[in-house]
Every structure is written in structure tokens, then in C-alpha cells.
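Help! Submission page says 'invalid entity' but I think these are all valid:
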Amino acid sequence: DAGVIQSPRHEVTEMGQEVTLRCKPISGHNSLFWYRQTMMRGLELLIYFNNNVPIDDSGMPEDRFSAKMPNASFSTLKIQPSEPRDSAVYFCASSSTSGRAPGEQFFGPGTRLTVL
Amino acid sequence: AQKVTQAQTEISVVEKEDVTLDCVYETRDTTYYLFWYKQPPSGELVFLIRRNSFDEQNEISGRYSWNFQKSTSSFNFTITASQVVDSAVYFCALRTDKLIFGTGTRLQVFP
């Protein structure tokens, strides 16, 4: 199995630029999660989708952040415009929920974003 | 409110020592799930174990063991005979409607 795939692995951009992070979940998984990891705030859930539908986006910091999942095999997290405080590692994770039990989440390798 | 507390920020041990990583959680839900993840220096998050709130049986997997006690809202993780490769940040997490992570414990195992 390929696992969760994220691209790019590293992104360096200048303040004000648009940044798009991409994620391909594990085939067959019906839930997808975006997390942000920083030294100050640890691992934070930004948003998650179930069957391609956004369920909880309360963790999205502000309107500059948006996420989409146009189909079961692809999701994007966009930051526009980016700011230096957005610098972090962004993880995508997917899981398969059967019945009421949440499956374990499998994480991608992360995208390290640096905004100068 | 849901909360996960990992009071130990960093632990250093010498190889072959046993080490226990503490995790205390808070939730009002009666159904919940607890997880441990490992984040090695390479950065990826690796799933270690999932436990549901109705199963308090301790679990052992090789050198790893987990002690779940609802009475103290704790889900502690013990590594027996630690090895250098165990050096990583370990996260405890609680899932009710969503997954909430603790702040992690950095374990350093020295040769």
C-alpha cells in the first residue's frame, strides 16, 4: 500500500503568496484529516472530511485557510495569503470508519511550510 | 471539554532501562478511544495502539505495554529494555467526536 501521500514535502514561500498543499488518502478510507504541528501549539486538527464532506472545520485558524475534497482520492489545503506565522508542518491523515468505531488514523509524511 | 495531558515534556534514559510515559485524559463522554502515536526524528506519525473506553485490559506488544485505568483516567505507556531506536516524541490522543493530541513526550535513549 502506498500510504497517505502528501505534496510537496517542503515549501518555502514569501509572505502574501498563495500556498496549496495536497493530499491523497489511502484508497478505501472514508475520512480525511488536516493537522498543523508547531512547537508552540503542538498538533492541532484543522478540519476533517467524512465521505468527502467537511464535518468539522472549527480548527481552521481564519478565512485565509480553506480546504476542499473534490473526490475520495484527493484533498487540498490552501492558504491565501500566507503569513510567516503559518510556518509549520501540515499533516494529512486518513482513516476508515466502520460502524461507530473510529479507525486509527494513518498519517502522511507531512509538508513543512516556511513562509518568509 | 476534552483534554489530554502528558506532563513529562522530556525523558532521558540509558539503553536497556525501562521507561513509562504518562497520559491523563479528561472527557465527559462514556464512549471514547485512546491512542498512542510515535513521531521519530524523521517526522512521520506512526500509530501504535488504539483502546476503547470499555476495554480496560492491559496490552503487551513486544517491548511495549499499555496500562489503561479508567478510575484514574490514565493510559500509560511502558517501554521495556529501551533501545536507541525508541528515541522519538510520543503522543497520547483522545477521540470522542474528534482526535485531540497531548503535547507529547520526547524520549531520548542513550547508548
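Support: the input was valid. A stray whitespace character was the problem, and the output above is from the cleaned input. Chain B has no helices and twelve strands.
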